[in-house]
Amino acid sequence: MSEEKKVNANSYDASQIQVLEGLEAVRKRPGMYIGSTGTRGLHHLVYEIVDNSIDEALAGYCKNINVVIQEDNSILVEDDGRGMPVDKHPKLNIPAVEVIHTVLHAGGKFGGGGYKVSGGLHGVGASVVNALSTRMEVEVKRNGKIYKQAYERGKTVMPLTEIGESSKTGSKTIFWPDGEIFEDLVYDYFTLEHRLREMAFLTKGIKITLIDERGEKPKKEVFHYEGGLKEFVRHINKNKDAIHDEIIYFDTTKNGIEVEVAMQFTKSYSEMMLSYANNINTVDGGYHLSGLKTALTKVINDYARKNKNLKEKDDNLTGEDIREGLTSIVSVKITNPQFEGQTKAKLGNAEVKGIVDSTAREFIGAFLDENPAQANIIIDKCIKASRAREAARKARETIRKSNSLETTSLPGKLADCSEKDPSLCEIFLVEGDSAGGNAKLGRDRNRQAILPLRGKILNVEKSSELKILSSDEIKNMITAFGCGIGDEFDISKLRYNKIVIMTDADVDGSHIRALLLTFFYRYMTPLIEQGHVYAAQPPLYQTKKQKQTYYTYTEREQEKLLEELSDKPGKAEIKRYKGLGEMNYDQLWETTMDYNNRTLIQITVEDATAADEIFTTLMGDKVPPRKKFIEENAKYARLDV
Ligand code: 0RA
Question: Counting CB atoms within 10 angstroms of each CB, which of 35, 48, 439, 512 has the fewest?
Answer without folding.
Answer: 35
